[in-house]
Design goal:
Layout (H helix, E strand, L loop, with lengths): L1 H21 L9 H18 L6 H40 L6 H33 L1 H10 L5 H19 L6 H41 L5 H33 L1 H9 L4
Helix pairs in contact: 1-3, 3-4, 3-5, 4-5, 4-7, 5-7, 6-9, 7-8
Length: 268
């Protein structure tokens, strides 16, 4: 049942978000190309308006992207729960597999490792899509520079780069539209810093708990000690990686303008 549910959720993660996002009041887009084209057109209009508030067309694109990431985050979170439950069943079965054949033990080990890797991938998807839902406008920015840009969009992006550079070097007044971009870009990185910090705390706590269980396990039970120790070490290693993510995103959030300029210059 858990395997079937995991497969269904994995398929839903790929297919369902676009449909769910399109169910909002603003509707949806035919495909990614349609979304990218609409974003480019509406971004030019929004920048030229000089207003801080999004134009109706730009708001439609941002709202759609918020719903899209929200749907992905929810599906990925449910998938993560299912994979964790499935992984626990597999590893418990492996620990009880003292009297079965080597082939079945190898199958349980392979299944446990695969499910663990898929759970880690699902966790990464939850983190990334929560970040995208918190700051959908900043999450859309990479689409503006993806591929070849020409015409009004290219001119507009050049203006964005120039105004960003001027605000950093000469301290010129920042246009309202650029202030919104910088603010959302900062929120984008704050979101990841907060989410990653929570994950880091959970991983550290998990590692400590597992190593305590290793210490309480009899030395003769080498299989249990090996499994618990492996997961304890993996949790500790992953917590270090996530802490690096926290530091990097916190640093960017504290001073987002240079990082945003580097992004538009192709350095992010």
């Amino acid at each position: 049942m858990l395997v079937a549910l995991a497969v269904a959720l994995a398929a839903a993660f790929v297919v369902a978000p676009r449909t769910l996002a399109a169910s909002g009041s603003g509707g949806g887009f035919v495909g990614r190309r349609d979304l990218v084209e609409a974003l480019g057109e509406e971004f030019v209009k929004y920048w030229q308006s000089g207003d801080r508030a999004f134009s109706p067309g730009m708001q439609r694109v941002v709202d759609y992207w918020f719903r899209y990431h929200l749907a992905k985050a929810v599906i990925a979170a449910i998938l993560l729960i299912v994979l964790v439950a499935l992984g626990l069943l597999l590893w418990k079965a492996f620990l009880r597999a003292g009297g079965i054949g080597a082939g079945r033990r190898a199958a349980l080990t392979s299944g446990g490792v695969l499910v663990t890797m898929l759970a880690l991938f699902s966790l990464a998807m939850v983190m990334a899509n929560v970040q995208g839902a918190v700051a959908p406008y900043a999450s859309l920015l990479p689409m503006l520079t993806a591929g070849e840009t020409d015409g009004e969009l290219a001119d507009t992006l050049d203006q964005v780069r120039q105004r960003l550079a001027d605000s950093l070097s000469a301290g010129d007044q920042t246009p309202p539209a650029l202030e919104v971009m910088i603010s959302d870009f900062s929120r984008y990185h704050v979101a990841m810093a907060v989410v990653a910090a929570i994950v880091a705390v959970v991983l550290v706590g998990t590692s400590v708990g597992l190593w305590k269980r290793v210490a309480r396990t009899a030395p003769s039970d080498r299989r249990t000690r090996r499994v618990l120790g492996s997961f304890g070490a993996l949790s500790a290693l992953l917590s270090l990686v996530v802490i690096v993510v926290v530091v990097a995103n916190t640093t960017t959030a504290a001073d987002p303008a240079p990082a945003l300029l580097a992004f538009f210059d192709g350095g992010w």
